[in-house]
Every structure is written in structure tokens, then in C-alpha cells.
Amino acid sequence: MTDSPPKLATRKQIRNICETLALGIAGGLAVGLTGFPAGWLSGAILAVSIAAIAGRPMTVPSSIARVTYVIMGISLGGTVTPETVAGMASWPMSIFLLTVAMVLLTVAVTLYLRVVHKWDVPSALLGSFPGGLATVMVLAIENNANVRAVAVVQTVRVVAIALLLPAGLAALGLTGVPQFPAHRPPFSAPGELALLVTVATTAAIAAQWLRFPGGLIFGAMVSSAVLHGTGWVTVNLPMWLTLLSFMVLGTITGTRFANMDIRTLRHLAGAAFGALVVGLAVAFACAVAAAWLLSLDAGPMTIAYAPGAIDAMMVLALALNYDAAFVGAHHLSRFVVVLAAMPLVVHVMQRMNKKAAEKGAKDAKDEPADGG
User: Are 166 and 42 within 8 A, CB to CB?
Assistant: First the structure.
């Protein structure tokens, strides 16, 4: 009798996982087969997000997420070519300009949330950070910010960017040229395929163990890129497996809305989408300016400068036929810069709040004397 509840709970969890994955794959297929840019990813996000907001228990186990990240990393690394390596000379300046862009974006969104929606300083600042969601939420709790508001704004940013960017870039005619046809069929060289999977998986696990940001996807991507770039490996994973990983990633992204109160989401929708528009406008303007200054294509630069989730942006690069290594390098740099800046900015913010509180206490203490 005592064993029954765990078995029922386990069956329920399995049922929820199967429902989530089935819904995500169905959504990815429905949109992807229409030819919509990055439809395999955005269709899954849309389907699962709607179900999660409607109250369905959407969940994906971490084990499936880890395998998905490794598969994506291998596929992304397979896009590296000699032309990619030759173009790396322009990356340092572009990454520097990206840092400037992220500062401008953070300031713009903070001012928007403060002036338009009257948010307090900690909530506005943490809601504006272009990345590092987990760290942002910890800082929000520690600094007495509006945790729910920050969570909604940050979640909408991550999900909406993955949905909106592909359509926007396609409408502007900024998609690239397909990169995969250069590879031999995956099973034409089983030895090479085995080497690719073994080395990439080992590198991914090592990077994750070392706590490297996005370790699984970046470890697999870098090792795959080295193997393909040196010519040791001339095959890549089957296309169907790559597309499946797109849909699973979209499913994982959509689950960010799980357990979110619809009334809270509706109440904060204005702030969330306003912050999204302001942030995207600043990022796009900076990306276009950087592309013009460095004589680079605006399409890849837009994805590289977009304040979205690292994994989703790299998959978008692949789906839109951009240089995934270029985009990945920029988003890794953004992630590192944001994480490094957060403690410093929060420290300054705390000092400002402390001074304001001291000034308020002093003014309140002096009021009776002035009145007398």
C-alpha cells in the first residue's frame, strides 16, 4: 500500500513528459514543414508555451536536455569551413562592439521600466539584463526585487526573441545560403562518425564538468568544429536528428512558461513586451551599425547581437544558414560579460539605495526641528 503513491506519481510524470515532447514535436513539424524560417524550433516553442500558459504540466527531464545539447553542438560545429576560419580576424572588434551594445541595451530597458512602468531600481535593472536568467533570479531574491515581475520580463524576452527573429530576418531577406550539403552522407564513413560522436561527447562532458558556460553545447561544438575544420571528419549527423534536436530545444524553451499564473502574465504583459521592443530596437540598431563599420552581413550580426538564449540563438544561426561559430562566439562573450557585470552593478545599486535610505532617514529626523 505504501508503494502505490510513488508509482502513480512516476506514471504521471512520464505521461507529462510524453505529452510535452509530443506536443513540441507536433508543433515543430506543423510549422517546419511549411518552410517557415527556423519553424522546427519556433513551432515547438509556440505549441508548448501555449499549453504551459493554459495550465498543462509541461516538463522535459534534464537527461533529455543534455543529450539534445550535445547533438546540437555536433551539428553546429559541422558548419565550420576554411572561410569561417579566415573571417575570424574581424571577430574581436565585433565582440567589443557587442559589449557596448549590451550596455546601451541595459540602460535603455532600465530607463523604460523605471519611467514608463514605475518599477523600483533593483527590479528594473535586473529585468533589463540581456542574459544570465538563473543568476538574475538569484540576485532578484537577494536584493528584494519584484521576483515575479523580473521572471516574466526575462522569460518573455527569451521565448519571444526565438519566435520573432526568424520571421523578421526572413521578411528582410537576410537569410543565408545553406551550409550542410558539403558533407558526405553520415553513414558513408562509420569510423569518422564514431570518432565525431565520441570526441564531441567527451569534450561536452569535460566542459560541463569544468562549469564552462553552456558547457555541453560549446564543448561538443568546438570539438566538432576542430574535427571538421582540420578535415579529419567529413561527415555530420543525419539531418533528421538535427531537426529533432531543434524541436526538442523548442520544447524545452516553451516549458519556461510552466506554472506561470495567467493573471500575473496578463498584468505584466505590457512591461514585458515593451521591454522586449526597446531591447530589440537597441540590439538591432547596434548590429546594423557594427555590420556597416566592419563590412559584415547584417543577418548574422543581428542574431549575434540579439539578447536571446545562447542555445536558441545558435540553433537559429544554423537554421537560417548563418555562421554558427561566429554567432556562438558572440553569445558566449555576451554571457560572460553579463555574468561578470552583474555583481558589480548590483553592488553599485545597493550603495545607491543605502545612500538614498540614509538621506531619507536624515531628512525625516530633521523635519521636526525645521518645523519648530
Answer: yes
